[in-house]
Amino acid sequence: MTYQQLKAEEEKYVMNTYGRFPIALDHGKGATVWDVEGKRYIDLASGIGVNCMGYDNEILIDAITAQAHKLMHVSNLFTTEPMVWAAKKLVEKTHLKGKVFFANSGAEANEGAIKLARKYSFDRYGEGRYKIVTLVNSFHGRTVTTLKATGQDRFHNYFFPFTEGFDYADANDFDSVRLKADETTCAIMMELIQGEGGVLPLDPAFVKQVEAYCRERDILLIIDEVQTGVGRTGSLFCFQQYGIRPDVVTIAKGLGGGVPVGAVLAAENCCKVLTPGTHATTFGGTPLVCAAVNAVLDTVADGEFLAKVREKGAYLKNGIESLGKESIHGVRGMGLMLGIIVDEGKHTGFANKLIEKGVLAITAGRNAVRLLPPLTISKEEMDEALTIMKEVF
User: Fold this and answer.
1) Are 35 and 3 within 8 A, CB to CB?
2) pLDDT, tens digit, for every residue of 312-333?
């Protein structure tokens, strides 16, 4: 079908909850995709950081295919090998000595972390210690609870009443954190790079202060690595570059390489909080998904692979910084999570122009063109994208 034919059918049958770009994608290879009419694009968005191993990746496809021939799904009332190995890899490669709960998305992972933090505090201190402090400009999901956890007013509409028990501190302002994190607080939740908020890395000294404050008061430190995790910033998890030890890490997006999955990784001190009957999910940790997770971790967690991600990130960042000095006001981020800073309000126009010319990019915050390419992107694909960027910027 042509794009117009497919779009007409979509408008009949699909809820209009997205402002979609005017293309319909059909297939891909590496970091390159083609639409239904044969136009070619370099993908610097990768499904908002999901397709970390690119398209038509044989390692991932072989793992999924082999598992599909064995078991695709069983109830979590039974144990399966892929789930156990995936959890083991996450625990061992992060050195948190904890345990994992598998969910289906980043929002679900954050919901699980919120429940864990409140039960941890209830078990130790009883009622009254329930508040979770997040940061202004944060984003933690679109469920009723994770919308409330999100520190952006523009998301706080229509769906009242929200789940209560959240407050927001200013990023990189430790005094603000101390003011908000009172005696009713059980956890502080942060993204180390605020992705949806504009690709805004937190100051390492601030993060260290928050970690120390949490330790002093037995407040759980939850690090939301939904977007920054699984090699995106050049280490398996971004917290490893900040030199901190979280109590809880939430994971999704790239973890399944394109298969829907989320996870809550709890460290040794709180990994036994959630007990039978206190949390569950039908599809979390299913064998098919965990086969994909194992393939991703076996690839992405390799030291040489991560070194290449850092090299590619530096190459792409340097290339962008050499373009359009009048249009580009800097590049923020780490590894292959980058934000091109432009005049406020012009980011959507630039993203549209890039797509029109053959580069898929998305936006973040008020002034960032956000880049989250597959971690497997080649130098040739980056060079082609930079050539188009030069024309656009």
Assistant:
1) yes
2) 999 999 999 999 778 999 999 9
